[in-house]
Write a structure and sequence with these properties.
There is one protein chain. This protein is α+β, with helices and mostly antiparallel strands. It is built from 5 helices and 7 strands. Strand 1 and strand 2 form a beta hairpin. The longest helix is centred in the middle third of the chain and has 55 residues. The chain is rod-shaped, with a radius of gyration of 46 Å.
């Protein structure tokens, strides 16, 4: 500054490096801000637990690192401004950025698992009923045949199960053999009584 061509001093225009400055920097960058000088925290917008973990040793290591672990969370570090002894850093929580994505992915996996298990249960139920229905039909036919004592009428194949149809054919063949043997039994008895 000069008064009538005589220099009487100088004027320095500066910005206060306080919590307000850190807050404005955070708003602009979208990340937390740290203002540090000679290993001390001047101002920060980091969460209290992370700010408490900022020791002099940690602050001195920030210029040479891209990540730092504070209070159990990992932060990406970027030096924004360095003027004199003061350095301004932005720190963005990697865990905080990944956590919502991981939570959503876990929810999607859980829902997918529920849907898959539900579909598997329905498919299992359908398969069990498909296999049991022909056997149940055969069982009812055999019960009706036994109750009516009508062994001459062959059982009808269902056509829905190869195994049950094979069993039905075998049963019909057995019944025909038994009926044939029963028809021959009276002749054999008469022949045995008459003699040769």
């Amino acid at each position: 500054l000069a008064l009538q061509d005589v220099e009487i001093g100088f004027l320095s225009v500066a910005t206060a490096l306080d919590k307000g400055y850190a807050k404005r920097m955070s708003d602009l960058s979208g990340a937390s801000t740290l203002v540090a000088s000679e290993g001390r925290v001047i101002a920060t917008t980091l969460p209290d637990a992370a700010a408490a973990a900022l020791s002099e040793q940690v602050i001195q290591q920030l210029p040479g690192t891209s990540t730092v672990r504070l209070a159990g969370d990992e932060y990406a570090v970027r030096q924004v401004v360095r003027t004199g002894q003061v350095t301004v850093y932005t720190l963005d929580s990697i865990d905080g950025a990944v956590d919502p994505v991981m939570r959503n992915a876990l929810k999607a996996i859980i829902w997918l698992g529920v849907v898959v298990f539900s579909l598997a249960g329905l498919a299992s139920l359908w398969t069990a009923r498909s296999l049991a229905r022909p056997i149940d039909t055969l069982s009812k036919s055999l019960s009706e045949m036994t109750e009516s004592r009508n062994f001459e009428t062959p059982l009808l194949a269902t056509g829905s199960s190869l195994e049950v149809d094979a069993l039905t054919r075998s049963f019909n063949s057995m019944m025909a053999t038994v009926a044939g043997a029963e028809g021959q039994s009276p002749r054999n008895h008469v022949a045995a009584i008459r003699g040769p």
